[in-house]
């Protein structure tokens, strides 16, 4: 039997952030992981998606390179080559995570954890047998899993999740991607774009009113135009109701729409992955998410939870932040989670991202709102990148000058997103954002410009 | 000859006094006996008079706490420069007991004090000043708007000590440097506005940095309730700032009643079948950790009823009544210090199970202060429940720009007659408020009737 100050269950971003934070405070720490260090994020979510979308957007750019004086750059896209590259890089990143944990003196236990009681777990070891592990504090970071509803009449084995696409060699000829996020970032849109790039005829459907409900309404058309440029047909307010062997009927406000589909890709919903963990034996209530307070404590004071297992943002940045808070507190420190200003991003062309809330929400929440926009079509760096459209919009409040949201669609916008997230998390007033000096020409300059116009 | 303005010693046990407010602006002329500042000790509040005539120069901002004898400013003759603060000058008689200005002397300059005594300084400048024991009030700021930047503090630290302002102040024992609090710029702005002393606010940001939410929390109405950092207790006479969640509630509710013509009506619903259904679902879903509530049934019933009565799913504006395409139901959740209304989107197309999972997720996040802003916007109709508090009927106030809200009472025992025999039933009262500008009483009553029918035959909610 092994005993540690802190045992972390799950080796995804929430888990390894918790382990590192607890270790840094001098605690003895073990991470129990049933599959592979890095969790969903590294092995079949953020990392492979980002790598594959880089291939897809490079291909889209390559088709226009002659404008820049570069010829014969590429007329063909190989999904197989792109997925093979992604698999190699994913392997490297995953090994990097394992190594980092080892270097910090964090013990890795490979196996599936289940609580025995408030201070101990059984680990069904991957190499066989069971080990009992005791701990003064636990961090539950078991992430989430897909929960797919079958589509009546359509063969179940042709409804797949993004991880299947990540290993495809050839794209199917017709695909329906369903993106029914609980209101956040619709990663299905990236898979729709990837498959369209690979030659599939793709329909992207969401039962929600808008594919990008949290992106400011002024910027949504540009984002949707971008998907159209990939060749993706977008249906909003459409829910898959039934199917037959090769087609799906979607119910919309204007009646049913039939879509050809050899394959259906479902990117959401995600539900907490707590099956078999037996949290109730430790006295923790799950319903079905693990509820935590701002210190990431569950109802049992020495048991913490972080990341997708707690519902919430279902994003890696939120998971890592909560993990760090949970790990710090589990090791006797004091930290609080704040998720109000975490950035959201979709790797499309144009890219789109946002932090905070949109103008309509700000007005509905009763703020005295001021907004400013800057058109990236006039940003010299955007022009050099060959972009035709792009907008930055700043939403602020008059009373204190608090920045409530920054929304952006355009090329290389992660630079703006980084600045905006920093400014909002540091609670810097909009006037100071307006006064910042950037390198010229960069995309970041347009953030200051939009902030200057916010009044 | 400069006359010091000091914190007076009031009684033997006084250890420190706080300059709560300057009563004359920096640079104004005063006569002997004019009131100069307001101060507080643990025991008493008082106004302090000018002991000399001349021009008042403030050396510390509002809210500064010093031991008796601590210098807060000077009265100068016209054209006389402000003496630099020195450890010798500021340490009071009871110097060792409290943080005292122990500053490195700086050249007399425009202290970057903004309106209300707030000092504008960059985070790095603050940290440097704190480490060097430098009082920022005496440093001239060269950043935008007189903001003190790193270079200003570096220069101030390097500046040669100036002569002590008054030979009368003998050298005293050195004291611990003042603690510059770590706080975000917006938190400072808010604290200044509501006269919250940042030194008393527990910070929950990185390294204990005080955030906007912490100041709101300390002011009594936490937007997020940090587990380990309880908001201060309130006493009679305190003024609770109306900001953040409190302000949103105040503005929306007042605006709602001012702007709309609100009419509330009630209806009793036989809940026998709904109680049975919920009981079955509780058992059925227990394995999945999902516990449906009556509110979940009501959210679904409401969304379905809105499909049949589109007039109630609308927005009233000067242009006209806009019928909305989607049915997003806001569900009011009581939280520490107020209420939040997270939104279940497209509740008419979600299954009851999906609704239960979603309301549960949202309510948990709302209570933990972790709900994302995107989850709280866009409702087309709301539901609010007081049943758990024993209330049956009330007059809910509409969340603008919606045209209706449904209030839900508790499920209680009722009596029905089967022939001559009284039988026990389960009853619940629904209170519907509508905006009479957009909807009339009869269609509203018809809508309420549909909600009741759906709840009385709840299998229709399971489709
Ligand atoms: C297609 C897709 C793309 C995405 N792209 C992005 C993106 O670009 N950016 C972003 O921020 N987010 C993205 N996300 C979301 C992101 O992947 C998750 O939010 C993140 O992985 C959550 O981290 P976590 O640590 O909470 O859980 P996970 O990453 O799921 O890790 C949980 C770990 O716990 C292990 N585990 C579970 N139960 C047990 C047990 N009983 N015993 C031992 N181990 C156990 C699992 O094996 C897993 O390794 C994406 C999601 C999807 C589906």
| Broad structural category of chain B | alpha+beta
**Helix content, binned percent of chain A:** 25-40%
Question: Are any ligands bound, and if so which?
Answer: flavin-adenine dinucleotide
Shape of chain A: globular
Radius of gyration of chain A: 23 Å
Assign the structural class of chain A, choosing from mainly alpha, mainly beta, alpha/beta, alpha+beta, or little secondary structure: alpha/beta
Read across the widest sheet of chain A, the strand sequence of neighbours is 1-2-3-4-5
Number of strands of chain A: 21
pLDDT under 50 segments of chain A (min length 5)?
none
| Name of the top-level CATH class of the largest domain in chain A | Alpha Beta
Largest sheet of chain B: 7 strands, mixed
Radius of gyration based on Cα positions of chain B: 31 Å
Would you give the CATH topology of the largest domain in chain A?
FAD/NAD(P)-binding domain
CATH class designation of the largest domain in chain B: Alpha Beta
Give a nutshell description of this structure:
Chain A has 13 helices and 21 strands. Chain A is an alpha/beta fold. In chain A, the strands form five sheets. In chain A, strands 1-2-3-4-5 form a five-stranded mixed beta barrel. Chain A has a five-stranded parallel beta sheet with strand order 7-14-8-9-10.
Description:
The complex is a heterodimer of chains A (455) and B (463). Chain A has helices at residues 13-24, 39-44, 46-62, 79-103, 162-165, 188-197, 220-230, 316-330, 359-364, 380-384, 414-425, 430-434, 445-453; strands spanning 2-9, 29-33, 107-117, 120-125, 130-140, 144-146, 159-160, 174-178, 201-206, 232-236, 239-243, 247-252, 255-260, 263-266, 270-272, 303-305, 343-346, 351-356, 369-375, 391-397, 403-410. By secondary structure, chain A is α/β, with parallel strands linked by helices. Chain B has 463 residues and is of the alpha+beta class. In chain B, the strands form 5 sheets. In chain B, strands 9, 12, 15, 16, 17, 18 and 19 form a 7-stranded mixed beta sheet that branches. Chain B has helices spanning 87-90, 123-132, 150-158, 185-193, 212-218, 244-259, 272-285, 294-308, 352-368, 441-456, and strands at residues 3-6, 17-22, 29-30, 35-40, 45-49, 54-58, 64-66, 71-76, 262-270, 314-317, 320-323, 329-331, 333-335, 338-340, 343-344, 381-385, 404-408, 412-418, 421-435. The radius of gyration of chain B is 31 Å and the shape is elongated. Chain B folds into 3 domains: 1-101, RNA polymerase II/Efflux pump adaptor protein, barrel-sandwich hybrid domain (OB fold (Dihydrolipoamide Acetyltransferase, E2P), Beta Barrel); 185-219, Irregular (Dihydrolipoamide Transferase), CATH 4.10.320.10; 245-462, Chloramphenicol Acetyltransferase (2-Layer Sandwich). The complex binds flavin-adenine dinucleotide. Residues 9-15, 32-35, 39-41, 45-46, 49-50, 112-113, 141-144, 162, 187, 267, 273, 276-277, 307-309, 314-317, 319 of chain A line the site of flavin-adenine dinucleotide.
